[in-house]
């Protein structure tokens, strides 16, 4: 299911707006971007094969790993990948739900929540 870029952006914005205020207040110095597809390097860095779905990626230093007197950091980055989401979903509603899940998943990584804990919480 292909969406116009502006519509896809609107769904990402809606997912970000759905993050509870208490959590969103602590999301400083983080950029959220949309890319068409992950790069081969991103797949390699994650140990994924090209036929595996990658809907989103968090790149940065999780908040739990930062020291009190840490050096200034570049912005963390959450990338949402439009191509895989469109290829995996059959409707706009499915894309919207996968975007929401992906945003929650990547924001969790920003807060230091790893894959095992996400699975425990039902976000696998």
3D architecture notes:
This protein has 124 residues and is α+β, with helices and mostly antiparallel strands. The chain has a single domain (5-120), classed as Zincin-like (2-Layer Sandwich). The chain contains 6 helices and 3 strands. Strands 1-3-2 form a 3-stranded mixed beta sheet. Helix 1 packs across helix 5. The model has no long low-confidence stretch (mean pLDDT 90).
Instruction: Return the CATH class.
Output: Alpha Beta
Major sheet size, sense and barrel closure: 3 strands, mixed
- Provide the β-strand percentage band: 5-15%
Give, in spatial order, the strands making up the sheet with the most strands. 1-3-2
For this structure, the CATH topology is Zincin-like
Low-confidence stretches: none
The CATH architecture classification is: 2-Layer Sandwich
> How many helices in DSSP terms?
6
Average pLDDT score: 90
Number of self-contained structural domains:
1
Kindly report how far apart the N and C termini lie.
Answer: 23 Å
Note the overall shape.
globular
Tell me the series of helices and strands, N- to C-terminal.
Answer: HHEHEEHHH
Helix content: 40-55%
The number of distinct β-strands equals 3
Rg, please? 15 Å
Instruction: Indicate the structural class.
Output: alpha+beta
């Amino acid at each position: 299911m292909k969406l116009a870029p502006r519509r896809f952006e609107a769904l990402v914005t809606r997912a970000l707006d759905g993050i509870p205020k208490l959590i969103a207040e602590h999301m400083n110095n983080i950029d959220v971007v949309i890319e068409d597809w992950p790069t081969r390097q991103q797949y390699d860095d994650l140990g994924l094969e090209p036929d595996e779905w990658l809907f989103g990626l968090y790149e940065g230093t999780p908040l739990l790993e930062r020291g009190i007197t840490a050096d200034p950091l570049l912005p963390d980055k959450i990338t949402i990948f439009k191509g895989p989401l469109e290829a995996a979903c059959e409707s706009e509603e499915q894309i919207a739900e996968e975007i929401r899940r992906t945003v929650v998943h990547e924001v969790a990584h920003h807060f230091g929540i790893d894959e095992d804990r996400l699975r425990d919480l039902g976000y696998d």
